[in-house]
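Example record

One chain of 269 residues, shown exactly as stored in the release files.
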Amino acid sequence: MTLATRVIPCLDVAAGRVVKGVNFENLRDMGDPVELAGLYFDQGADELTFLDVTATVDERATTYDVVRRTAEAVFIPLTVGGGVRAADDVARLLAVGADKVGVNSAAIARPDLVDEIADRFGAQVLVLSLDVKRSEDTSSGFVVTTHGGRVATTLDALVWAREAIERGAGELLVNSIDADGTKDGFDLELISLMRELSSVPVIASGGAGAAEHFPPAVHAGADAVLAASVFHSRQLTIADVKAALEADGIPTRRTDARTTGAHTTEEGR
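Predicted structure tokens for this chain:
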């Protein structure tokens, strides 16, 4: 049986507001995260992803509050990332309503963090967030970046993804920094390379600008497709993306019209 492809809106959150830029720069305010989460829930989103793109100590309390209020309003899986540096951070996010937690910079700095989270909470909770740039300095042609895409490393993205899976990562969120916010389409080569090495689900992120951009990402190997700008700007709805996938022979999770606060049979927590 072919698994349905998930459609996931991403909320990049800074100081309690949703922001969006191009190549992770020139961030602009896109709205209230709880209101947008409710809108996407009603539209039939399969999951939601929150990424705290500034993740300083001062803003961490804001993120906990946003996560709590969102979890009270919607009933689909919620992944939260940004500023997770220890297993105790994961515990706190799960306590306020997160279902999964993304790690990136801290795991690159200290890979044992992946083992610690997976051992304590299970691989199903741990999403490895990869902000990837093209580079001529690695054998694969891709490196990972840290600090919201602002700091490049010398670490080969494919080597790191493989190691993190071996350590217990349960899912890969693969975001192309080069494509992010450009609306020119996903980096299909990157998705394909990650699919070849990965034994866990791959989420494609970065570059979606039209409904027709989503099916190629799935054909390249993505188990789920994630986007931000096209949803926040109302250029596309979740239904538009699912229709494009279905028209290309890609099964999606069917969702009836929903109202905030009502569980669904297939996707309710």
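Notes: Residues 212 and 244 are 6 Å apart (CA to CA).
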